[in-house]
Amino acid sequence: METKVEAPVTTIAEIGKHVGQTVTLKGWLYNLRESGKLLFPIIRDGSGFIQGVLHVKSVAPEVFATVKHLTQESAIVVRGGVRADARAKGGFELDVQDVQVISRVPEDDPYPISLKEHGVEFLMENRHLWVRTPRQVAILRIRAEIIKAARDFFDDNGFILTDPPILTPAACEGTSTLFEVDYFNEPAFLTQSGQLYIEATAMALGKVYSFGPTFRAEKSKTRRHLTEFWMVEPEVAYAELADLMKLGEDFVSFIVHRVVTKRRAELEAIERDITKLENVIAPFPRVSYDEAVKLLQEGHAKGALETKFEWGGDLGSPDETYISAQFDKPVIIHRYPAQVKAFYMEPDPERPELALCMDMLAPEGYGEIIGGSQRMGSYEKLRQRIHEHKLPEESFQWYLDLRKFGGVPHGGFGMGIERVVAWICGLEHVRETIPFARMLHKIYP
Ligand code: 4AD
Ligand code: MG
To answer: β-pairing, 167-168 with 180-183?
Structure first.
């Protein structure tokens, strides 16, 4: 594009390299403040935010007039001199010399998201615009860092990325949350987890992981559940439960350390208490399900929990919140009753009513971020479980084959990216952890 503005193009993130020089920024008007003969436009370009300054006498009258009448979120190309200013957010200001308007937001149909407070319903309806605001931008940067850290951890520790299918013939995590699709007149389902398929690739490659979208037709409205979310899942041949707990704590410590190191500015921008994250160093406490039941019953006796938890049930959100609040690090709960867990879990040889499984709960009341287990090794017992769970055996023949042809102890876990983003960012609700959240009755925009 031909522009009348001529000076090296840079970004706000890189502006510190240009102090004393004239540069060009390509972005949008975030906000405009006026004070006597001065204008203070705040410019954003995706990489950051910077305040510009214009004095009525320092620029051509038409430039001053253009800026004075600029509307919020109009797209602009700005030329100006870079000045270090210790008082400025980010440390720099731009002495604006010239502005070219690329597209103008109409005066009579203004940008709907002003800098004042809006209700969350309204913001979610305008999510396509809400993502531009500084807080949302910081959260999305942190999300990207978490994903990169997760990939780096596995890539650098001998795991091979293998991508499971998204369209599947059968359930993995229970039939009540399946999204059905019409697959050439045959019913098929959106995947709930890549696990069953990466069990197959783990037998080919040893240590594998998958990272992709997963789907659950969750019929309840909670602050932790999405219907479409991203899961990262490692699966390891010859791994037993103790190995999985160790892998999980090393993985989560690594991610948190990486974010605290590389995204400190964003964490500060969203006012996260970073000292709480700095505490997240392996090893994490391990609590058996039996011990967790005791904790919950004590909590009930103290009046902190409404209902008395009975052995045999699955932990609900209030239970998880209560337990995780007792620790300042993530806590691993292991060996749940098999009856509340998925069909594919290996029983504990010492107490077959328990599954060799683990859930990791994040601190500060964030609840489950990881779920995993050792996988059922016996062909016959697995077949029996498939029947008990009323799953169609013919769809699982290939999965049973893995036990027949060179079966070994193995296991893995899944970590939900959005739950981890919510915890690391200290967010109330998962809806802000993903650019476009999919929830019960929510599919627009
Ligand atoms: O505990 P889940 O259901 O475990 C599995 O899917 C296993 N097949 C994983 C494995 O062993 N490879 O889900 C794993 C994680 C949860 O701990 C949670 O972080 C996240 O996925 N998760 C959700 N996140 C957002 N919305 C939902 N509806 C979620 N359901 C699970
Ligand atoms: Mg789970």
So the answer is: unpaired
DSSP secondary structure letters along 117-142: ---HHHHHHTHHHHTTSHHHHHHHHH
- Which helix (H) or strand (E) segment holds residue 62: the answer is helix 61-68
CATH placement of domain 128-432: 3.30.930.10
β partners of residue 23: 80
CA distance 358 to 286: 9
Q: Which backbone phi and psi does 137 adopt, to 5 degrees?
A: -60, -45
E strand residue ranges, 196-240: 207-215, 228-237
**DSSP helix/strand/coil, 223:** coil
Both tokens of 125, joined, read: 């309806």
200 burial level (CB within 10 Å; 0-12, 13-18, 19+): middle
Q: Does the pLDDT of residue 2 top 50, yes or no?
A: no
Hey, whose CA ends up nearest to atom 20 of ligand 1?
A: 416
Give the DSSP H/E element, type plus range, for residue 362: strand 357-362
Q: Report the separation in Å between the CA atom of 309 and the middle of ligand 1, taken as the mean of its atom positions.
A: 23
Query: 421: CA distance to ligand 2 center in Å?
Result: 17
State if residue 216 touches ligand 1 by the CB under 6 angstroms criterion.
yes
Token output for 318:
């209030």
C-beta 345 within 6 A of ligand 1: no
CA–CA distance, 373 with 414 (Å, rounded to integer): 9
DSSP secondary structure letters along 241-254: HHHHHHHHHHHHHH
Q: Are 211 and 234 in contact (CB under 8 A)?
A: no
Dump pLDDT digits (tens) for 173-229. Answer: 999 999 999 999 999 999 999 999 999 999 999 999 999 999 999 898 899 999 999
- Strand residue runs (E) in 331-409: 331-334, 347-348, 351-355, 357-362, 367-374
Element (H, E) at 103: strand 92-103
Between the CA of 415 and the centroid of ligand 1 the distance, in Å, is 6
The predicted model scores a pTM of 0.97
Q: Where are the domains of the chain?
A: 12-103, 128-432
- Residues 6+ positions from 35 with CB-CB distance below 8 Å: none
Superfamily of domain covering 12-103: Nucleic acid-binding proteins (2.40.50.140)
Neighbours of 90 (CB within 10 A): 15
